[in-house]
């Protein structure tokens, strides 16, 4: 194949990773192009953070919806910036590899190489 779709949430990030008692993690929250190879790794980070936050609820005899909202808000706050970095950086790498950015033409390999190495 010489053409394939690259889909991500760079232009339309989720306004929040949660709504009420519903939380999205992994590719549902930060779908990115595969040019970093980090999507699954970031999912594992999310899976590691969430139980640590949920553990805070062990002290309660009854868990109220507001308690769960507070945990989800903490998750959103702790993960959003890093997850969005992955989406945006992977998209830039995809554009570099696919010659879709200005200044990415044969002869600009040094600049492209430096940009990719910085990622």
From TrEMBL:
InterPro entries: FAD/NAD-bd_sf, FAD_monoxygenase. GO terms for biological process: secondary metabolite biosynthetic process. Keywords: FAD, Flavoprotein, Oxidoreductase. The keyword 4Fe-4S does not apply. Transmembrane segments: none annotated. It comes from the Eukaryota. SUPFAM superfamilies: FAD/NAD(P)-binding domain. GO terms for molecular function: oxidoreductase activity. The keyword Aminoacyl-tRNA synthetase does not apply. Belongs to the paxM FAD-dependent monooxygenase family. PANTHER family: FAD-BINDING DOMAIN-CONTAINING PROTEIN-RELATED (PTHR46720:SF3), HYDROXYLASE, PUTATIVE (AFU_ORTHOLOGUE AFUA_3G01460)-RELATED (PTHR46720). This is FAD-binding domain-containing protein. It comes from Canariomyces notabilis.
């Amino acid at each position: 194949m010489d053409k394939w779709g690259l889909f991500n949430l760079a232009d339309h990030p989720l306004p929040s990773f949660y709504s009420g008692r519903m939380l999205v993690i992994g590719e549902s929250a930060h779908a990115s192009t595969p040019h970093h190879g980090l999507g699954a790794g970031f999912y594992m980070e999310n899976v590691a953070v969430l139980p640590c936050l949920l553990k805070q609820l062990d002290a309660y005899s009854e868990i109220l919806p507001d308690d769960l909202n507070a945990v989800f808000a903490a998750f959103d706050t702790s993960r959003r910036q890093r997850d969005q970095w992955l989406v945006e950086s992977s998209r830039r790498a995809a554009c570099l590899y696919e010659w879709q950015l200005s200044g990415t033409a044969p002869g600009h390999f040094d600049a492209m190489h430096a940009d990719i190495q910085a990622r």
